[in-house]
Amino acid sequence: MTPVCRWLMAAVLGCSAGMALSRDAHAQAACPVAALSAYSHNDYERPHPLEDALALGFRGVEVDLFLVDGELRIGHDRRAARSGGTLDSVYLAPLAALVDRCGPWGAVVDRPFLLALEIKEQSPATYDALMAVLRRYRHLWVRDEAGGTRVALDVVLVGWHPPPNGTRVDSLPGIQYRLSRAEPVDAAVLDPRVRLLSVDYGKTMGRWWRRSITRARWFDAIRASKAAVPDRLLRVHNVPQNADVYAALFAAGVDLIGTKQPESTAGLIRPSAR
Question: Span of the secretion signal (predicted)?
Fold first, then answer.
């Protein structure tokens, strides 16, 4: 049973006992709505990868990749990846099935579902294997030349990747730009492949010894970066489970907060919790 099928079964079983589900109700249960401004970091460590994030209403997942015996497998290190599932079976095939059932906007509200992929080793062979798999699902993430086709996924490489080597940018996955200093992005020199701005909260603005004036500069840099490139996603990860911190980040323009504790984060950022 695929992750999406298990998610659907759980949604159906969660309905009131004895209630007869109509075809319309069943179809509605099959189409999660990604309405929460968060993504599941190291999602493969969840009891039910992908489906937990979908069930919570998250807008993306982050996955680490290794090439093991010719297959792209998921895991935080090579040893774990040897027994991990494949990117295809755990993520891409279920997402494709979801889009077939719900349409390209069935799983999202106002923009594509983020699939952040980290190649953990500097391996051209791993990158080539990834591109071969992604090409089989190009209808999910590759925009047409006119940019008029809405896509279901925003595929972004957040780890190692080779230079484009003349390949058309619009047929490649996006990449990230790390904000490591409290300075705004310079839109004029930003690589056109950049689809994601990233801040590691715990290693930058969130260090315990940071003064309030330094944090204020970080918030100013986030606001200015978002204003400079409003079409790029801005994510912050390694964030403490704190509603006030979440609120301050959202107020500064952060699009997505990464979390390894999805249930707790969901409880803190749902509208009813604010």
Answer: 1-27
